Amino acid sequence: MPNDWSLALPPVLIVGFWRSGTTLLHEMLAADRRFAAPTLIDVLCPTDAPYLRKAKQRLTGAIAPLMPATRVVDNVAVTPRSPQEEEAALCHLGAPSSFAAAYFPKRRDAILAEALFFDGAPDARERWRAAHEHFMRLMVVKYPGRCILLKNPSNSTRIPDLLALYPSALFVRIDRDPAEVVPSFQRMTDVANEAFSLQGRAPPLDREAATRFHARVTAKLDADWPLVAPERRVEVLYETFAPAPLRSVDAIYRGLGLERSVEARRRQKRFWLRRGRTWSPQSIAAAQIRPSLPLSP
């Protein structure tokens, strides 16, 4: 595959802090079949080859009965074919990844510094770039002719590196009131640690630490956002998107210069009517958690 594949078929990358509506936006856009978003099997098996497709299909069928009805950290429905963020794949490939903070919460600060800011390890950036490019090439081979659609809050701090890998990438940024986001992020972190920790029970994330982390990630995103050409970036507020999602998606397509087919709009409207308007990202109590598959922390 040529190194400039992304110039002809630019990926669309959704960024924004955790709990800002990135998942809802991802699934809504993914209803358009011009896009290809990673599935659970794609991120659990990020090193396979096309000739293993039938085996993966059998694995998908085997996993379905074992999965919880909702994500571990909230009440959002999930299936083996639900769009997933590629951060899980990067973690499985051995790259610096924010997912590792859920597995090793007592090293949370060091893990996040390395994964999000490439601090603490001289080769962190190179390892991350190699893993991300590997995964993207795998996606392009698996979904030929389709635009790769990713959402990943961790990518909010990696815009310069994403642009270095994919110069023509299109970006969608979603923001939400910090007063809503920060406490929700706290709950998400604590529930994920309860479910996935390999170090036993870890201290909960306090509000001050969550607020500082939100401020640091947002400041990096604000500083890097102008690096993306204006015609290749769109911003949306969760408070605007949630009440009028179809209108907001219209604006995203126009802002990125993408054509939206009648079929795509119909499928996105159907997604909203069936799932979106009953979307329930409420955090569930840690006591209700029963660890299962390694879904998004």
Short structural summary:
The protein has one domain (5-282): Rossmann fold, CATH 3.40.50. Helices cover 47% and strands 7% of the residues.
Describe the secondary-structure layout.
Blueprint (H helix, E strand, L loop, with lengths): L4 H4 L3 E4 L6 H9 L4 E2 L3 H5 L8 H11 L23 H6 L7 H4 L4 H10 L6 H19 L4 E5 L7 H7 L4 E6 L2 H19 L10 H18 L8 E5 H4 L3 H12 L5 H13 L23
Parallel strand pairs: 1-3, 1-4, 2-3, 4-5
Helix pairs in contact: 2-14, 10-11
Describe this structure in words.
- The structure is a single chain.
- The chain is of the alpha/beta class and 297 residues long.
- The protein has one domain (5-282): Rossmann fold.
- Helix content is 47%, strand content 7%.
- The protein has 14 helices and 5 strands.
- Helix 2 packs across helix 14 and helix 10 (178-196) packs across helix 11 (207-224).
- The longest helix has 19 residues, at 124-142.
- Residues 283-297 have low confidence and may be disordered.
Integer average pLDDT: 86
Number of strands: 5
Net shape: globular
CATH architecture: 3-Layer(aba) Sandwich
How many domains is the backbone divided into?
1
Regions with little confidence, pLDDT below 50 for 5+ residues = 283-297
- Derived structural class: alpha/beta
Radius of gyration: 18 Å
User: CATH H-level name... which superfamily?
Assistant: P-loop containing nucleotide triphosphate hydrolases
Pfam families: Sulfotransfer_3
Organism: Methylopila turkensis
Protein name: Sulfotransferase
Keywords for this entry:
alpha/beta, Rossmann fold, 5-stranded parallel beta sheet, 297 residues
